[in-house]
């Protein structure tokens, strides 16, 4: 039987030529102009979508803010890693092929590791915005830099800040009950807390550890168990939904501990504050944050408020902005888009006018900013105030937490 | 064995395969690093798709937890390399044995107790989830903190330790993909292959004909698990980091089965075509959207969804069967014996 088809050889060739032109088009377009081309790799879809999109807000704000600060132009080349290590690697290759002279990303340690290998092979500087796994900067890479605390730094600072707060308040809990989600993050934090806490000689003892499923719809039993321990404070490692559930249970079961000490996300997130209103006030979160007293923090906060009035400045915006600040600063000093010159300039980075707590941005021989400090923040009237460390604080800690039935 | 490999393949198919292989062999000399990365991904999915296809396509046993075997292969070789400096080629047999034994356990539990169909699929998901949670707490491989392989900027490729540039990984994967294709082709024409197809079509009828269905289903599971674990070895040494949540996740299992579903379950070439289509076209779509200034997150997943919908509605047997007919590569319907489609 004769085969009927509209596809002739000529049409196929014409189609192939059109596709090739089309595929080459971005490269041609992006090769023009004198701005530094920064490939921004973030998980804007998949499991980490909301965080990736939040980081993207920080990146988008940076372009005009950095320009207003006198830094040279940067052009963002955005790519979605889809919360997938394979895609992260492919996108990094693609951005470099399209002319990216520096990479920034990727929120997650696995994805950042995959990108780091590509960056190192190609000799393109890669500035990590958020990723806490220590091995990333232990590999002897020459082109990988991280301006974010490692997991041990975060935990160490959390306990140091707690002690500072206890001292400032003149009171400390003698017992705490530790509730944590039983997912990867929760179990990692549990292990880390167990390893780091003994080094800090904390004034309290953990009387019981209660784990639960982060997808649980009801935490009444777990909270009743926690209340029954008679612990003076609640230490938590949680996510957003379970943080809301636990708070509601504390109100329902009439338990107001002296403090809620959160070692992870959930308790300071915008959704938590909006959902719970005045019941959201009081919990303390120990997180990588920003120094509200620094001039640049105020400028970043104002820029965010203008672009997204309903969103509070947070870790995702801050560290993505700072990664781009490092890029722009290196470009300014290197006066070149040559990746090697940029990497050399990043190694010599010494930024004191920055956003994160600590003396500023400076990298050690491994490419890690080891001078970064983490903060203790407290929810107050739908906003977040920094209560420790003292140098980065803009409020005094409210201690003990106001009982839920007296609000 | 020679006849198993050579029989039932027309000259036209040989030429098409030869040309494709020749193109793939010289591809690294022509394409840039980005396209090479895409080709590596395509080969990775083509290989795992063939391994999965043995179980579902040939023997009719639906597994939705194949990430389990990728993860076991990855963790076994990576841990042996990190802790004892054992070459991945020496760790590979251990990984295959671990995965095959795990597959055997799942198969035994399911087939002995007549767990079939969707219930078998749920069992495979359950085991992948057990592994994910178990590895989250397995201190020897750093639990949920992730297992990192030491890396460096290699100027030369070290094939023995699988340390080197992407081009080395490309050729390793190409070798395994071609080997898997040859093995699947031989299997499909072997006694076991015909028994598997009989089980797939009607297990009761197969049993009534005297086929030991338990044994042959076990063969399929064990072989598929062992083969899939080889992909895990590649995964570990290519990406150099392993997190239980990333390696054993259900989404990774689904990712592995998309290529054969799109290409054509039960066919030899279908899974490979599916891998090329899904990975290649997803990149083209991404380029297309970017060229016009669209930057929507998750466009690839949407494309996958549309593609699946398209195949389910219009091409329920996958892309390859009609494509092979259009290209004149399918066996003629009036062929004297009813051999499986190439």
Commentary on this structure:
The complex is a heterodimer of chains A (407) and B (342). Chain A is an alpha/beta fold. Chain A folds into 2 domains: 30-149 and 293-347, Rossmann fold; 152-287 and 375-406, Response regulator (Rossmann fold). Chain A is built from 12 helices and 12 strands. In chain A, the strands form 2 sheets. In chain A, strands 7-6-8-9-10-11-12 form a 7-stranded mixed β-sheet, with helices on both faces. In chain A, helix 8 (240-252) runs parallel beside helix 9. Chain A starts with 8 loop residues before the first helix and ends in a 19-residue tail after the last strand. Chain B is built from 15 helices and 2 strands. The model of chain B is unreliable at 334-340 (pLDDT under 50). At the A-B interface, helix 1, helix 2, helix 3, helix 4 and helix 6 of A face helix 3, helix 11, helix 13 and helix 14 of B.
Features:
heterodimer, A: 407 residues, alpha/beta, Rossmann fold, seven-stranded mixed sheet, five-stranded parallel sheet, 12 helices, 12 strands, 16% strand, elongated, disordered N terminus, B: 342 residues, mainly alpha, ABC transporter involved in vitamin B12 uptake, BtuC, two-stranded antiparallel sheet, 2 strands, 71% helix, 1% strand, globular
Cα-atom radius of gyration of chain B: 20 Å
Oligomeric form of this entry? heterodimer
Structural class of chain A: alpha/beta
Low-confidence stretches of chain B: 334-340
Count all strands of chain A and give the number: 12
* Helix fraction of chain A by DSSP (H/I, runs of at least 4): 40-55%
Mean pLDDT, all residues of chain A: 89
How many separate helices of chain A? 12
Q: Biggest interface in this structure?
A: A-B, 46 and 42 residues
């Amino acid at each position: 039987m004769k085969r009927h088809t509209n596809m002739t050889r000529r049409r196929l060739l014409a189609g192939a030529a059109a596709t090739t032109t089309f595929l080459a088009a971005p490269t041609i377009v992006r090769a023009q102009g004198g701005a530094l081309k920064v490939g921004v790799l973030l998980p804007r879809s998949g499991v980490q979508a909301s965080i990736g999109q939040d980081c993207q807000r920080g990146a988008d704000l940076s372009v005009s803010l950095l320009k207003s600060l006198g830094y040279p132009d940067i052009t963002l080349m955005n790519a979605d890693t889809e919360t997938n290590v394979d895609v992260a690697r492919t996108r990094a290759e693609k951005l470099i092929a399209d002319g990216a002279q520096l990479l920034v990303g990727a929120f997650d340690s696995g994805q950042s590791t995959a990108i780091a290998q590509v960056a190192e092979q190609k000799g393109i500087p890669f500035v990590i915005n958020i990723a806490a796994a220590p091995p990333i900067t232990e590999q002897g890479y020459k082109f990988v830099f991280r301006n974010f605390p490692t997991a041990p730094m975060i935990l160490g600072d959390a306990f140091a800040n707690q002690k500072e707060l206890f001292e400032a308040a003149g009171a400390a809990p003698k017992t705490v009950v530790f509730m944590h989600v039983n997912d990867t993050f929760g179990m990692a934090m549990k292990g880390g807390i167990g390893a780091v806490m003994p080094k800090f000689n904390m004034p309290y003892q953990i009387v019981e550890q209660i784990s639960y499923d982060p997808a649980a719809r009801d935490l009444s039993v777990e909270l009743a168990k926690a209340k029954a321990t008679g612990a003076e404070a609640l230490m938590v490692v949680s996510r957003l939904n379970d943080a809301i559930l636990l708070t509601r249970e504390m109100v329902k079961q009439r338990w107001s501990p002296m403090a809620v000490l959160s070692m992870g996300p959930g308790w300071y997130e915008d959704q938590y504050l909006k959902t719970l209103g005045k019941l959201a006030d009081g919990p303390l979160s120990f997180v990588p944050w920003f120094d509200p007293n620094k001039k640049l923090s105020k400028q970043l906060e104002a820029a965010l408020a203008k672009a997204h009035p309903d969103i509070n400045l947070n870790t995702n915006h801050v560290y993505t902005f700072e990664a781009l600040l490092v890029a722009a600063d290196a470009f300014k000093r290197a006066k070149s888009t040559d990746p090697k010159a940029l990497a050399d300039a990043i190694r010599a980075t010494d930024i004191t006018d920055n956003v994160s707590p600590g003396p500023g941005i400076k990298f050690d021989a491994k490419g890690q900013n080891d001078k970064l400090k983490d903060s203790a923040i407290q929810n107050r009237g739908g906003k977040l105030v920094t209560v420790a460390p003292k140098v980065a604080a803009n409020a005094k800690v409210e201690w003990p937490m106001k009982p839920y039935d007296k609000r | 064995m020679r006849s198993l490999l050579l029989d039932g393949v027309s000259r036209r198919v040989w030429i098409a395969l030869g040309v494709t292989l020749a193109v793939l062999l010289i591809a690294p000399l022509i394409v840039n690093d980005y396209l090479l990365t895409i080709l590596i991904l395509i080969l990775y999915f083509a290989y795992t798709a063939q391994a999965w296809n043995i179980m579902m396509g040939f023997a009719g046993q639906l597994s939705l937890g194949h990430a389990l075997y990728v993860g076991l292969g990855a963790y076994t070789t990576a841990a042996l390399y990190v802790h004892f400096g054992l070459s991945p080629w020496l760790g590979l047999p251990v990984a295959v044995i671990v995965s095959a034994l795990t597959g055997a356990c799942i198969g035994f539990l399911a087939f002995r107790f007549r767990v079939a169909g969707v219930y078998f699929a749920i069992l495979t998901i359950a085991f992948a989830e057990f592994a994910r949670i178990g590895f989250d707490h397995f201190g020897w491989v750093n639990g949920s903190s992730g297992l990192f392989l030491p890396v460096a900027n290699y100027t030369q490729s070290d094939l023995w330790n699988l340390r080197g540039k992407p081009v080395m990984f490309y050729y390793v994967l190409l070798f395994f993909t071609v080997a898997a294709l040859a093995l699947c082709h031989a299997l499909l024409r072997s006694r076991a292959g015909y028994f598997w197809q009989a089980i797939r079509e009607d297990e009761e009828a197969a049993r009534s004909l005297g086929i030991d269905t338990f044994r042959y289903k076990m063969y399929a599971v064990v072989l598929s698990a062992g083969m899939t674990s080889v992909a895990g070895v590649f995964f570990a040494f290519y990406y150099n980091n392993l997190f239980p949540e990333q390696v054993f996740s259900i989404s990774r299992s689904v990712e592995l089965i998309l290529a054969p579903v799109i290409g054509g379950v039960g066919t030899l070439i279908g899974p490979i075509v599916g891998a090329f289509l899904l990975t290649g076209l997803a990149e083209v779509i991404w380029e297309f959207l970017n060229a016009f200034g669209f930057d929507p997150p998750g466009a690839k997943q949407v494309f996958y969804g549309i593609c699946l919908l398209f195949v389910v509605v219009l091409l329920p047997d996958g892309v390859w069967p009609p494509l092979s007919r259009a290209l004149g590569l399918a066996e003629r319907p009036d062929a004297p014996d009813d051999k499986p489609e190439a």
